[in-house]
Write a structure and sequence with these properties.
alpha/beta, binds inosinic acid, binds magnesium ion
Length: about 180
Amino acid sequence: MDKYIKEVLFTKEQIEEKCKELGKWVDSEYKDSNELVLVGVLSGVVPFFAELMKNITIMHEIDFLKISSYEGTESNGMPTMTRDLNRSIDGKDVLIVEDIVDTGRTLKALKSVLAKRNANSVKVLSLLDKPEGRVVEFEADKIGWTVPNHFVVGFGFDYNEKLRNLPYIGIFNQDYLDKI
Ligand code: IMP
Ligand code: MG
């Protein structure tokens, strides 16, 4: 599958190391929290979410929702929630866990939806940030890495729902645009 990758950005080992660091951040950020819930944004976040959880030592719940606005490598601009949380977040500390912030539309919309549900707090942790892609103002509370404005795949990141299973993160080889 390596032919679909133009350049590896982060290896499996670098990702594991980063998830340890981010797990420690969650531990310290929420050390005084009574009820922490990690909210994963499906589907891209799955590998990151699992790796992150292993490195969090404080008690927490997990829940997931699905919100999407992407087709191929282009955002169509309208994030829609296609699957909601299973439980109430009333009074809880919510940490939204996402794979990447690009235009910022998804997380801006999501944060405002969840903010109306009486959570004690709502913060965002994203593995990657592509600040050059931003079209609305949005900043996550914590970022793993900042990346240049390229389309990335692997470790959850997809091109047309494929390549999520690569254990590393790399830049998509545009020779395969519309070919997979
Ligand atoms: P935003 O609303 O543009 O910030 O979209 C964020 C969502 O777009 C992420 O959750 C990803 O699912 C997807 N996305 C943005 N950039 C990439 C990329 O480089 N590769 C794969 N998916 C991406
Ligand atoms: Mg996503």
